[in-house]
Fold Serine/threonine protein kinase.
Amino acid sequence: MVRALGSQYTLGELLGSGAMGQVYRGADHEGNQYAFKLLRGDLVDDKDFVARFHQERSILVTLRGENLVAVHDLVIEGSTAAIVMDLVSGGTLREQLTATGPILPAEVARIGSGIANALHEVHQAGIVHRDVKPENVLMDDAAPIRTPRLTDFGIAKMAEGSRVGRSTLMAGTPQYVAPEVADGQSVTPAADLYSLGITLYEMCCGVTPFHGETVLQVLRSHAEKLPGRPDGIPDELWEVIWGLLQKNPAARPRSAAQVSAALGSLAQRFWQAQI
Ligand code: ADP
Ligand code: MG
């Protein structure tokens, strides 16, 4: 099925769907291929959301980086709002984890360095991602080596004030959310570093460190429990993860750039040591 989006784009096959809406493959009239994220209809009814959508436009469309999914355009057409972005083939990091299970330290460090690099760009632009997790990392197969690309930046913030968005988006995703965020404090870049720490932990051993039967229990365990050290994880990698998972945001590394550099050099060393 092919349908038009505004006067510029045509949409084709459905690629996936998520909490915010559905993602389609499509193209502009010159034949350039993109992914189109069509946002939920109830968001488009919301004046606050539409205002934010326009407000964020100028920031999002200028954000570029080798580890980001570039946003090319934000369009509102009738009752449809869509984000036009790079089409990334290779699925999500979540799909990779589900297919292969835990990832070797050298790859964890390499992919982690890429995600941290993306966070650096996002933070430099004054944005906090708020929802770093394997679902929001796309793996780019077109690059010479499978490259992580962070997506969904700025989206959580746009949806912040919306009626439906509030309960589902304010808290991020319980398994990945920093203790201070669960506690209702303002969200800073350090919260993204915490979520990156949880993501790295999960890449190493296949499960996230904090659990519970209810959302509240999960959030409590972020605040109260210490993460158990997974088997077989090299000391240097554990040190990085431990630093990211500090309860006190001020005790986490000072910048995503620093984390990216540290993980990048670990990736090289682990690769040489074949671990
Ligand atoms: P949500 O955040 O609302 O859950 P996502 O942005 O994660 O939605 O997208 C849902 C699915 O669509 C993803 O799991 C992925 O399979 C697919 N997808 C999203 N963005 C792209 C893209 N830029 N290129 C290719 N596939 C994508
Ligand atoms: Mg997502």
Q: What stands out?
A: DSSP finds eleven helices and eight strands in the chain. The first strand starts at residue 3 and ends at 5. Strands lie at 3-5, 9-17, 21-28, 33-39, 71-77, 80-85, 137-140, 147-150. The two ends are 47 Å apart (CA to CA).
